[in-house]
Task: structure prediction
Amino acid sequence: MKNSRILLFAFLLTALISCSSEKPETHKKERPNIIFIMSDDHAYQAISAYDNTLIETPNIDRIAKMGMLFTNASVTNSICAPSRATILTGKHSHLNGKVDNHFHFDTTNITFPQLLQDAGYQTAMFGKLHFGNNPKGFDQFKILPGQGAYYNPEFITKYDGNIEVEGYVTDIVTDMTLDWLENEREKEQPFMLMYLHKAPHRSWLMAERHLDDFTSRTFAEPKTLFDDYSGRATPAAEAEMNILHHMSWAGDHKVFPEMMDELGIPEIGYDKARYAYEYSRLNESQMDNFLKAYGKVNEDFAKKYPKMTDEDKMKWKYQRYMQDYLGTIQAVDENVGRLLDYLEANDMMENTIIVYTSDQGFYLGEHGWYDKRFIYNESFKTPLLVSWPDRIKAGSRSDELVQNLDFAQTFLEAAGVNAPEDMQGESLIPLLTGNDEKWDRDAVYYHYYEYPAEHMVNRHYAIVTKDYKLVHYYYVEDQWELLDSKNDPYELTNFYDDPKYADIKLDLHVRLEELRKKYKDSNEISQKYIDLLMKDAAEGKVFGVSKEKVEEIRERRRRLM
Ligand code: SGN
Ligand code: CA
Result:
């Protein structure tokens, strides 16, 4: 009896030991790798998996072919660093504190990479972060300072201080990523890698190898290129992001400053200064190639300019914008292809979650615009393609309302790590794995803050459902906008005062208040952020905002109260 008890005890002990030593081991191996690919300002209109009118992106499309394409993915605040902060923290801007590009990210926030690192994931980040400080929770990082440069960029590195690398940024960030995958990571451990492109951010300098091809292409114009902004709340007309009026000749379109002088073209904004800054980084042979390609553009322009009407100018500027913007995307697509080829060649595709997304969408001439910030579709929505062959059915698609807010909890669930209670998103795993019945979101919340600032897009918050948007422009305005996605897909009409929409309007107002409560947003928090930015703006510290502008805003506020 005694012996058998001892035997039983010994058996249980062995079982326990083997369990505790083996189970985590197997469990560890099963945990997926995570590769988060994000480009900066990549419009879904410029990914052929969504729309091939403008460009073919066969490599990015591979991710959707292997996995899932989301047609209603959006951001909570359509601007760079705030989007990144929401992705990392799983919280809306008003709670993580990064409401605009101006102030630094608060590094006391808990981010999903920190939690994954604690759980045994290897973590690395390469490319653009734009936080004003270094990321926490990474075993390795090489990041661009601020916006970073297209040519011969500098990097802030975790171990080697600041370095400058000769070449084109999209290629270099990929080289660093592949080098880490091949030579630096522990091959037995799962990893989470953030591969973050600067392209296609303004001022759109493409790789030398694409110059000839892209500067000779012509693109279809969007239907709303000549939008006059009537029929909507006034912020659309007040924004400074119209291609004709605000995009600069030298800085954006690469008209040579001497050519501007010769033709008597007045500067738009920081026109020549921006040009000088962008070109100052090029080495001699890069400069030669640029001057050659843009020399032809300038020659052709000089012949046309004297006879150009405003309409002609808009059309010409749109073409130049698309040539350069899409040219930078060509290199992103090629480099995404290099990464996918590496994963395939190393048999890593099956149990790796690959996400391709952008920090927000972008206007490619819709409403006559470039840039982002507004809640209108092109900048509110963002591309989202996800592959994970082990779990996602190839070639699938989801029209659900998902957001950048959801990434943190998605990755934590995939890695088997509990998400902190105060994260505000939802894991996308049910949608990715075909269990849509577990997904019940019917509306999302949006809040944009960066005003006064470059492009002058007024502050606004909103509720968005699959059918409608109810938007409140506050601060220097007090206007509401009701958009009807089904009946007015180009978003040209404000139905707020249309009696036919009375019930819908009421319902949306109630739901918007519920959402604000759910996500813990309030007018008091908004006021705190207004005060912070206005203090710096009054001291002349906010890029693109003059002291006169600050006075004008204060006057408008006084009138509104
Ligand atoms: C720069 C650009 C803006 C752009 C912001 C924010 N101007 O300031 O056009 O909106 O970045 O972009 S530029 O004259 O410097 O090109 S973001 O992606 O970082 O949010
Ligand atoms: Ca951006």
